[in-house]
Amino acid sequence: MPWESFGRTVQSAIYRAGAFGHRPEVPTDGTQLEEAARKVMSRRGFAYVAGSAGSEVSAAANVAAFDRWQVVPRMLVDTTERDTAVELFGRRHESPFLLAPVGVLSMAHEDADLAVAHAAREQSVTQIISTQASVPMEDIARTLAGSGHWYQLYWSSNDDLVESLVSRAEACGSDALVVTLDTACLGWRPRDLDLGHLPFARGEGIAQYTSDPVFRRLVAERVAAGSPEPRPRPTPAAVATLLSMSRNHPGDLRRNLTAPEPRAAVETFLDVFSRPSLTWDDLPRLRALTRLPIVLKGILHPDDARRAVEAGVDGIYVSNHGGRQVDRSFAALEALPGVVEAVRSSGSSMPVIFDSGIRCGADAFVALALGATAVGIGRPHVYGLALAGAEGVSEVLRNLRAELDLQLALTGCTSLVDLTPERLVRVG
Ligand code: FNR
């Protein structure tokens, strides 16, 4: 398929199928997509994905921020041939989309991260594998079969574990290491709190840990020291949790049901998950651990961006975690121009990745015009996953790629280089 016709080809295929009575199973509109996913997901699953911090106004602000920018189309430009490719850390990407790291995908679909990997490969979009994934990174990398991925690190309080996760990421072929800085602890999330539901406490989303030799050693030591965890009363809820922990733990289910390791693994995870004491002074240690490009995720202030450049990192990722961490946070898009200005005026050409609030191709257009090098797709791909597994994720990505391509064609742009702030006006 010639690249220049990508958007039209996708659009025509949808209309052609429609002529024979087939409507897309995965809605092309972001709001409809979320609503369709809500209908097929469990209450807990949807709350975990759609929910955000406190009053949830940060998440709403992320989306609303795009309405303050409008696109100014230019006419009589030959846009027959369009190119949405971008190069990141030595690899050519067909489009500026990345799959943002999202944990506990098993809450959306049983094929979880492997389904996302199939779609990532099909759509030539780089998957950022989460430290809270439902599947060990090596299995995801195998499914990706060399098509490129990055690894997202939550910096554990245990140094040996950090070292082990980083060396596994290198060994399984990650192109970059994304260090998420905004999760010194989990945000206050009323939807999950009101359901009393934390997936990790049920053994979900800790596959990177239970597959890790250092973590397994910590669990073994905990078990050998005699389990300090009190045995809960065998209520139906407690039995369901034990079953969930045992299913999610490696090894034989029947053995896991009576063994101490699944519960000890959950407790160990809760102990080592994050390192609230992390500061800029810790970065040189990470630099010494790996030759992979380091990207700092969660940067929102120009001074932090300047500091990151000085610290010698290789990329910056502007994000407020989809509004899941800080309540009443300003929109990530509001932070983007200041961070880009700080990075570029420091003389750095490093990539500035953006996520939080992108729901359509035009949103990507705006973020790229404001200086983002590439954009992460978070919740929309999870909704596609919930609706139709790998094909659902593929459809979400295909639609975004097609929409961005058509947006270029209709605004007189032939490549991402054309996307500059002059393409936009700010209203309000
Ligand atoms: C996330 N995000 C996230 N980020 C990260 O660095 N590691 C992680 O494990 C997760 N897990 C996670 C789970 C769920 C359910 C969501 C919705 C998000 C944040 C993610 O990478 C991204 O920053 C946001 O999803 C962007 O916001 P929108 O566009 O999805 O609203």
Give a written overview of the molecule.
The radius of gyration is 22 Å and the shape is globular. The protein is α/β, with parallel strands linked by helices. 46% of the residues lie in helices and 11% in strands. It has 18 helices and twelve strands. The strands form three sheets. Strands 4-5-6-7-8-9-10-11 form an eight-stranded parallel barrel, surrounded by seven helices. The mean pLDDT is 96. The longest helix is centred in the C-terminal third of the chain and has 33 residues, at 379-411. Helix 2 (30-40) packs antiparallel against helix 18. Strand 9 (315-318), helix 16 and strand 10 (352-354) form a beta-alpha-beta unit. It folds into two domains: 3-185 and 276-426, Aldolase class I (TIM Barrel, Alpha-Beta Barrel); 197-272, no CATH class. Bound molecules: ligand FNR.
Poorly predicted regions: none
Number of structural domains:
2
Main sheet: which strands, in order across? 4-5-6-7-8-9-10-11
Give the structural class: alpha/beta
CATH topology annotation of the largest domain = TIM Barrel
Head-to-tail CA distance between termini = 41 Å
> Compounds present?
ligand FNR
Corresponding CATH superfamily of the largest domain: Aldolase class I
**What general form does the structure show?**
globular
**How large, in whole angstroms, is the Cα Rg?**
22 Å
Note the total helix count: 18
Quaternary structure of the protein: single chain
For the residues shown, what is the average pLDDT?
A: 96
In CATH terms, what is the architecture of the largest domain? Alpha-Beta Barrel
Largest sheet: 8 strands, parallel, barrel
What is the N-to-C order of secondary-structure elements (H for helix, E for strand)? HHHHEEEEHEHEHEHHHHHHHEHEHEHEHE
